[in-house]
Amino acid sequence: MSFNADLSGWDTSGVSTMESMFGSAKAYNQPLTFDTSSVGSMSQLFYYAMAFNRPLAWDTSKLTTMESTFRGTSGTFNPELPYCSDYCNGNVVENDL
Fold this sequence. Notes:
Blueprint: E1 65-67, H1 84-88, E2 94-96
Parallel strand pairs: 1-2
C-alpha cells in the first residue's frame, strides 16, 4: 500500500485499539501525534510498515498488548520509544515486538 497522508487532524482520544492500523502501509512515514491515552492494544500497529521511522511520544498507560507491533519493519526502523517505561514497568502483558 502506498498510503502516506497527513493524519495530524485525527481525534484519537476515544480510540481503544490501534491494531494493524498501519499494517502493510509500506510508504507511510508521517509524524504521529495521536492521543493514545485510551489505547489498550497496539498489536501489529506497524506490521510491515517498512518506511516508518518517526519518534513516538505516546501515552501508553492503558496499553496491555503489543503483539508483533514492529514485526516486518525495515532494518532502518528505529523510532525513539519514550513510552517504553510503561512496557518496562510491566503494564504490557502480551508482546512480541
